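Weekend entry, working from home. Most of the wet-lab plans are on hold until the incubator is repaired, so I used the time to fold the two sequences that have been sitting in the queue since the last round of cloning. Logging both here for the record. First:
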Amino acid sequence: MPMMSGGAGDGTATADAAALSIGAVLSRLRDEFPEVTISKIRFLEAEGLVEPRRTPAGYRKFGPADVERLAYVLRAQRDHYLPLRVIREQLAALDRGERPAPPRPGEPGEPLAGAEEPGRRPAPRIGRAELLAATGAGADELAQWESFGLVEAGRDGGYDAEAVTVGRLIAELGRFGLEPRHLRAVKAAADREAGLVEQLVAPLRRHRNPQTRAHAEATAQELAALSVRLHAAMVRSALRVLPR
């Protein structure tokens, strides 16, 4: 496979003539990827998977290599259910002129035997002792987190992998005097955002086409990432306008 470049063009007349707007790129990609959107292309750019050059006015201009790169990313997500981390590694290998190694069995993004549907597998679970060890919390602290709904055990008594991240962040915020009871509003906001994402992807998840259902998972992750970025930007904006 030829090496792909995600960088800006050289500004020559030939490059300018071949450059495409984001709308033109969308039209080209939709023949093969009918569910791709402009927001999806912008998201992949924000994640550093493609780097179109910009005009002095700030408009994106995509070259043929950029379009090929986008198609590679979308194909890897659709056909192999690869997460962006693995796709990014593959693109880096291609840029070096190497042949990217296929994901090893059991790596994220590869369907597992017995999965309910292609591209989906049970989320990893950890036990109570593992969670306490990973976060450095005591049993009383974990009980307090649970009492405020910040961390929840499943029916099997285990926790999802994100519980470790949540626990560590709660502990970090505690260093500044924020107690679990103060974070109930954060949890409520997260639940509302998750509900909104679920409303948007629910029709895709109910689709009969397994590829469409797999696309629902990628879309949910994309929306979650954008939601987090929006939340952070709004918090920063609110802090700037607070009276001093």
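Second, folded right after the first finished:
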Amino acid sequence: MVNKQYPEQFKVDAVALYRSRPGAAIARVAKDLGINHETLRNWIRQDDRARSGAQDSPTAGRNRPAEQGGSVAEQENAALRRRIRELEEERDILRKAARYFAGETRW
């Protein structure tokens, strides 16, 4: 069995792509990316652990008004900033995919 080494950015983008498709099957996203579904599943698990570990750390949430009982406006702003980051990440992934597939169709 051949173990492929994928760039870290590819892994991050693959997990983000999966998360940007609510209800999508891991196997389908993996097939679209041309990777094994178990590989993608492992990357998602690692990302979940990293996210939960970051939230559980003693310094997590420091200087975050939404978690320190800030005003409703501050909490809403923080939620909107998170959503903007998610949307920008999805947009970037789609741009990269479009560039990849545009290059693939050229002879």
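Plan for Monday: verify the second prediction. The helical segments are 8-19, 26-33, 37-56, 72-105.
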